[in-house]
Amino acid sequence: MKIFNFKSKDRHNSLSVSNSDVASPDIKTVNSKQMIKSISAFETSLREKTSHWSKSISEHYLHIQQKFKEKHSNKPISSSQLASFKSRLELGIHTFHSGIISSDRESIWPYLLGVYPLNISPSDKVKLAFKLDSEYTAEKHRWQSNPLKSKSILGLIYKDVDRTDRYTPYFSVSNDHPHFIKLFNVSATYIATDVPDYSLYVQGFTDIVSIFVVIFESESLAYACLKEFMVDQLSILDPKGDAFSARCALLGSLIEILDPAFFRFLEANDASNMLFTYRWFLLNLKREFTFDQSIRVFETVIITRLLAAKPVSIFFPNFIPETKECSIESQIQSMQFPEHSNSPPGNEAHLSEAYKDIFTLFLSYQLLAMYRREFIKKRLTMPEMCEFFSEASGTHNFEVILKLGKNLFSQYICENLSFEADKENDYVYI
Amino acid sequence: MVTIDEEFDMVIKLVLIGDTGVGKSNLLSRYTRDEFNSESKTTIGVDFATRTIQIGKKKMKTQIWDTAGQERYRAMTNAYYRGAAGALIVFDICSLNSFDSIGRWLQEIREYGDPGVPIVLVGNKFDLKHLRQVPISTAELFAHENSLKYIETSALLNSNVESAFQFLITEIINSFSQVHKDIQECTPLTFEDRSDLSFRRKCCVIN
């Protein structure tokens, strides 16, 4: 198989973005050929951290690639189209390209997240919704009836809920309003039920929960969808933040390869550890964009986790893993792929987590790239860059950054898969 | 750490620490931008703000690091305290828990910060005095025992916020001046008058 032909395209042209600010300094630093080389090099550096990679999984992802390359309409998906999708994968790929009509997210996200199977009958859906509701109610009553055990963590959650998205109309309410109570209940039920012994909680979690609380009128469906979103993400709740050291380091590696000049600048400013992007990784850049924009980002994160060409193992020597198995297998099964036999990585002495938020990494890169010329020109220090992003929250050119992030992801997924197919041949990019 | 910058005569790094929800971010926004946000968000990771002040003939940039009050992201702890010239440890006068945590914060700064770094203890939210849980005398005694200055502030009312930062900066300059005689020429210290300099409550105690 030949390398997917995006390498011959001029990246600037393929963006079709008219804003001159955008096509600017950031992109000009790397031409498309260099970009492919760089992505490949980045892929290699990630691969070194990947313990195993089975051929059967590779084949499944080739299937994704084929689906991914098919032409897609740019029209956002509506719930009336749900029946036309044959698989969750197909729905996901269409969503990646076109997004979902905002009023229809409530009905489509449960399918996207796998809470409802795509082919569920209306009567089964009613039964499942009822089951989810009774389960949620039971879990909620469990922590409500045992407040002593959970007092301190519930207090912390309450303090956070009290400061979550209060600038939005939905949460501009008093603390006894149903919206506020719903956010508190869903957050507390998740921590009480899905985290062993309330052992993990990180401030900022309620920022993630609020997305689901706003989209879903039903508290139990918000909880069920949050739970799916958080699969394999438990490590982010560890306030010691080892998961983020790894994520920040990955972003540093990506910049080092894609934009060495900027990386050298960051190094000289004691910022190459990228600690100032901690918030970006915890919240999938939610605080950088407006609430509505961040819903679109979360939607894309959901899909790209499904599509991520390769799970990357990042080692967390100090992290205690959740008991459930790595979900790569279950994910693939739920997408109705052919059988596969090999075990996923993660059984070594080191503890590992399948890192699938490659899209968040790329979006972070593009957000930084948007301003890199300005940063270098003004010789901003790390605190000054951090201050800049706090003040610029919600004012970024979202559509362009999203498009660039998606482009990078598309390149990554196709290049990555091509590598698997071509590794027997002379792969000369590195 | 006090560094010499081309644009400024001095740049100093200050850190704000204390439990979650005691008002660190609002003290920062009040001091640097004269703003109070009742809809403020939980700080995640670290945040920064700067303010330039005039001390005598010297122009000084204060760079203030604000952080989440929860157990700190480990990788950030070192970066946070490294080179800090001074710290404000903040508690909420309406929260005994936040006062009880002061010892833990002191321990952390003594472990990670430079030896002898000046610290000011701040009891915030004194506008809510009807809900007070920490008596002034208790806080004063604690401060005295630990050789800290103590001041009570209200970021909401913009009371004593300026003073709290000024106490800290004065201490830093004084300790710095002992080893760098060129700075001494700018003493006695006169801060630019910005907001609440003249507003001092009786409960504001300087040890």
Automatic annotation (TrEMBL), chain A:
Stretches for region Disordered: 1-22
PROSITE patterns found in the cross-reference section: TBC_RABGAP (PS50086)
GO molecular function terms noted in the UniProt entry: GTPase activator activity
UniProt entry keywords in alphabetical sequence: GTPase activation
Transmembrane segments: none
Pfam family, any one: RabGAP-TBC
Keyword Cell division: no
InterPro entries given in the database record: Rab-GAP-TBC_dom (IPR000195), Rab-GAP_TBC_sf (IPR035969)
Domain Rab-GAP TBC per the UniProt entry, residue ranges: 99-305
Descriptive protein name: Rab-GAP TBC domain-containing protein
UniProt source species: Oopsacas minuta
Automatic annotation (TrEMBL), chain B:
GO CC list: endomembrane system; pseudopodium membrane
Pfam families, alphabetized: Ras
InterPro entries, per the entry: P-loop_NTPase, Rab_GTPases_membrane_traffic, Small_GTP-bd, Small_GTPase
Subcellular location: Cell projection, Pseudopodium membrane; Endomembrane system
Membrane topology: Lipid-anchor
Main location: membrane
Signal sequence interval, chain numbering: none
GO molecular function, one term: GTPase activity
Annotated keywords: GTP-binding, Lipoprotein, Membrane, Nucleotide-binding, Prenylation
Family: Belongs to the small GTPase superfamily. Rab family.
Summary of the function given for this chain in its UniProt record: The small GTPases Rab are key regulators of intracellular membrane trafficking, from the formation of transport vesicles to their fusion with membranes. Rabs cycle between an inactive GDP-bound form and an active GTP-bound form that is able to recruit to membranes different set of downstream effectors directly responsible for vesicle formation, movement, tethering and fusion. RAB25 regulates epithelial cell differentiation, proliferation and survival, thereby playing key roles in tumorigenesis.
Subunit structure comment from the entry: Interacts (GTP-bound form) with RAB11FIP1, RAB11FIP2, RAB11FIP3 and RAB11FIP4. Interacts (via the hypervariable C-terminal region) with ITGB1 (via the cytoplasmic region); the interaction is GTP-dependent. Interacts with ITGAV. Associates with the integrin alpha-V/beta-1 heterodimer. Interacts with VPS33B.
Protein known as: Ras-related protein Rab-25
The organism of origin for this protein: Oopsacas minuta
